[in-house]
Amino acid sequence: MASKSPSSMSSLRSMQSMRRGVAYVLGGGGGGGGGGGRLYLQPSGLVNGFPWPLLRGPAFLPTLLASGSDSGLVPLAPDGSSDPTAAEMADVVERYYEVLDENNQGVIGMGENDTGATFAGIGEPTFRLDEICDAARIIHERRHGVPLRLVTTMLPADVGGADDVAQRIADARISDVTINLCAENPKAFQTCTDALVEQYTLENPNEAKHAVPVPTDAFANICALIEALSTRGVAVECCAVEAPGASTANTRALAEALGATSFRTRSYHP
After folding, report:
1. What are the boundaries of each domain within the chain?
2. What InterPro entries does the record tag this protein with (predicted)?
3. Of the residues 56, 156, 172, 261, which has the fewest C-beta atoms closer than 10 A?
4. How far are the Cα atoms of 5, 176, 253 from residue 259, in angstroms, in the given order?
5. Using an 8 Å Cβ cutoff, are 65 and 110 in contact?
């Protein structure tokens, strides 16, 4: 049976048992039946040094959080204490699709407009890679055709090497991975992340004390992950922010050389 496609925030609002912050919907212009947005699952509140939305400029995260009443996006605890379990994330997806079924908000044809679910959030999802992979297996046991995507910025130091991580993602049948590629070389990456860690620490000292330090080999690992995923048949999209001084052309060249299947630039919000 083809799965249904997420169509609106109203489906999330109808799920009274869902904890706030576990799931949210972004984008109202396409993808699903009924013209709604994409379903996102937020696996963790932990961050490597800083929340990834800071890459998009100081005004982006406040704007994103201000949309929470419409999207359902609220931060999880910065120490990881409110991170959802695999079963909780899988149950959200199942109930969400059930609500769509109940409201006759279905897909067409063979499910080509099913946008599925994306593991993403304010924190770094791969802190909970085990839970993500377990949730993916449960989701696919219930609804075989649900497309799943993962968004990451940098791998935590203790999650494993790029080859191991890529194999786990492929084994869990997560078909697409979006990688926020901060820069085109190690020096630019270090400059970018150092500045964002400093900004986060100054502006959010209570939350920043829970941040995990940026791994010393973060740039090398994220580059290795792009290559490892590509060789395993996972579609890799790389994104770069059009920030002042950034060379998105060089970042694109790096992404393509490593095997990324697509590249996208994102706007900067000063």
Report:
1. 9-266
2. rSAM_sf
3. 261
4. 29, 13, 10
5. no
Any idea which residue has 């509140």 for tokens? Answer: 45
| DSSP character at residue 121 | -
Q: What DSSP assignment string belongs to 75-113?
A: PPPTTSTTPPPHHHHHHHHHHHHHHHHHTT----TTTTT
3-state secondary structure of 158: coil
Q: Residue 109 above 80 pLDDT?
A: no
Joined together, the tokens standing for residue 89 give: 């994330």
Rounded Cα–Cα distance for residues 50 and 73 (Å): 18
Take residue 128 and report the two structure tokens written for it. Answer: 């909970």
List phi, psi (to 5°) of 48: -90, 90
Least confident range from 37-41, 68-72, 138-142, 259-263: namely: 68-72
* Element housing 61 (H / E): helix 60-66
From residue 103, give the alpha-carbon distance in Å to each of 38, 71, 115, 182: 17, 19, 17, 41
d(CA 126, CA 154): 8
CA gap 181, 227 in Å, rounded: 13
Distance between CA 165 and CA 150 in Å, rounded?
Answer: 12
Instruction: Give me the CATH code for the 9-266 domain, please.
Output: 3.20.20
Phi and psi torsions of 65, nearest 5°: -70, -30
What value does the mean pLDDT of the chain take?
90
Tokens of 62: 């406040």
Helix and strand numbers (H, E) in the chain are 10, 7
d(CA 78, CA 44): 8
Between CA 172 and CA 137 the distance in angstroms is 6
User: What span, in angstroms and rounded, lies between the C-alpha atoms of 87 and 76?
Assistant: 17
Instruction: Average the pLDDT over 163-180 and give the result.
Output: 99
DSSP state of 212: B
Q: How far is CA 63 from the centre of its chain?
A: 18
Is the pLDDT score of 108 beyond 70? no
